[in-house]
Amino acid sequence: MTTEAVRNAADFDAAPTTPEGWVDRAREVATRLSVDAVARDRANQVPTYEVNLLKESGLVTLLGPVEHGGAGQDWTTALRVVRAVAAGDGSIGQLLGYHYLWAWAARLVGTPEQIAAVEQLYTENNFFFGGAVNPRDDDLVIKVEGDELVFTGRKSFSTGGRISDLTVLEGVIEGTEKHVFAIVPTQQEAIVFAGDWDNLGQRLTESGAVEINGVRVPWESAAGYVKQADGSFEFQPRVYNTLNVPLVQIIFANFYIGIAEGALKTAATYTRDTTRAWPYAGDVKESASEEFYIQETYGDLTSKLWAAEALVERAATLIEAINSHADEVTEQERGEAAVVIAAAKQVAIDVGLEIGTKVYDLTGARATSNKVGLDIAWRNIRTHSLHDPVAHKRAEVGRYALLGEIPAPTWYT
């Protein structure tokens, strides 16, 4: 199967009706993506057809309301789906995970009316989200012009970019400290993508720069802002508003684990089918699969991968508990979830990078051929795991273990 086959591989059965069915659907998508993942990574093209595959599979509206045609699934299922897709193609797993986060953005900060409108819009239209919310850059500047907010500025990273239908913007109202999130159509003259994403890994995530040149948004679309009696708009904060960072961090951990799982599976196939036993050993084996050190290493790496999976599953239960009472969630609940997610992320990075390196010990010199493509896993995890320094995640867990201290909400905790 080539990229052309991926373009045409839209012949899915009826939509699943159970969480397990949706994870199986994600594995089906991953299988289709994995066939030519190496060629597509090398080509570094805009992943238009890959996103269409996600749409046609039904995965894009996994979290969407059933009454609008969505699957109405929970975050536990969404994270498992991200993990499964990432095993076939890490870039597409990341895109899907970010889409789920931004599709949930209205629930995090919006009013009930805004939540209903956004979820109906993206679910009925099968829209895909991107986001221009890189916190390391300066905030977009927002000018108030009558009943409209005008966003202007630049972001050096905007995952989803040119293949998104909707883009999440975040900025600060000029002369204030008021942050505003807004969801806008991607295809408009005031949003200009640089198309400059050409990095070591995660090459198909459309994460390049974007210029925001006067995107106009009505006040009524400023997420979470409510019109007051005097005509002004005010935001009423709650702890749940800060869940966006724990959510995106647990998404990271899941697609790292998915990438590592895919690498280990690819390596195992290569070891069984191609790798030769070492002919100068004291106890020469007929096949590489019988070599003790190869069996031991696969056992070690698989055990570590399973441990990482257990940790992200534990984190998901905390997210579900928070979602069950979003209006009453406490700072302590949020903080404890953030700590477990920090632990899951660092373990996922460590295991993923180790697997990305040791697969070569398990496959041999010929597996370094570019056509094999085992380098993709290490490149993908190495690239994205630099999103924010993992040392700070270790320290967050350490402060909790030593001092009982939970992390204060920031753009990265």
From TrEMBL:
<keyword id="KW-0560">Oxidoreductase</keyword>
<keyword id="KW-0285">Flavoprotein</keyword>
<dbReference type="InterPro" id="IPR037069">
    <property type="entry name" value="AcylCoA_DH/ox_N_sf"/>
</dbReference>
<feature type="domain" description="Acyl-CoA dehydrogenase C-terminal">
    <location>
        <begin position="250"/>
        <end position="387"/>
    </location>
</feature>
<dbReference type="Pfam" id="PF08028">
    <property type="entry name" value="Acyl-CoA_dh_2"/>
</dbReference>
<dbReference type="GO" id="GO:0004497">
    <property type="term" value="F:monooxygenase activity"/>
</dbReference>
<dbReference type="InterPro" id="IPR036250">
    <property type="entry name" value="AcylCo_DH-like_C"/>
</dbReference>
<dbReference type="GO" id="GO:0050660">
    <property type="term" value="F:flavin adenine dinucleotide binding"/>
</dbReference>
<dbReference type="InterPro" id="IPR013786">
    <property type="entry name" value="AcylCoA_DH/ox_N"/>
</dbReference>
<dbReference type="Pfam" id="PF02771">
    <property type="entry name" value="Acyl-CoA_dh_N"/>
</dbReference>
<dbReference type="GO" id="GO:0008470">
    <property type="term" value="F:3-methylbutanoyl-CoA dehydrogenase activity"/>
</dbReference>
<dbReference type="GO" id="GO:0006552">
    <property type="term" value="P:L-leucine catabolic process"/>
</dbReference>
<keyword id="KW-0503">Monooxygenase</keyword>
<dbReference type="InterPro" id="IPR009100">
    <property type="entry name" value="AcylCoA_DH/oxidase_NM_dom_sf"/>
</dbReference>
<dbReference type="InterPro" id="IPR046373">
    <property type="entry name" value="Acyl-CoA_Oxase/DH_mid-dom_sf"/>
</dbReference>
<dbReference type="InterPro" id="IPR013107">
    <property type="entry name" value="Acyl-CoA_DH_C"/>
</dbReference>
<feature type="domain" description="Acyl-CoA dehydrogenase/oxidase N-terminal">
    <location>
        <begin position="24"/>
        <end position="115"/>
    </location>
</feature>
<protein>
    <submittedName>
        <fullName>Monooxygenase</fullName>
    </submittedName>
</protein>
